[in-house]
Amino acid sequence: MTEFVLEAAPREPRGKGGARQVRREGNVPAVIYGVTDPRSVQVSEPEASRLVHHLHGTSQLVTLRLTGGKSKKGEEVQVLIKEVQTTPVGGRLLHIDFNEIASDHKVRVGVEVRPQGTPEGVILGGTMQIVMHEIPVECLPKDLPDGIDVDVSALLIGKSLHIGDVHFPPGVSPLAEDDAAVIVISGRMKEEEEEVAAEEVEGEEGLEGEEGVAAEEGDEAAPDQEEPAE
Question: What is the DSSP string of 139-200?
Answer without folding.
Answer: E-GGG--S-EEEE-TTPPTT-EEEGGGPPPPTT-EE-S-TT-EEEEEES--HHHHHHHHHHH
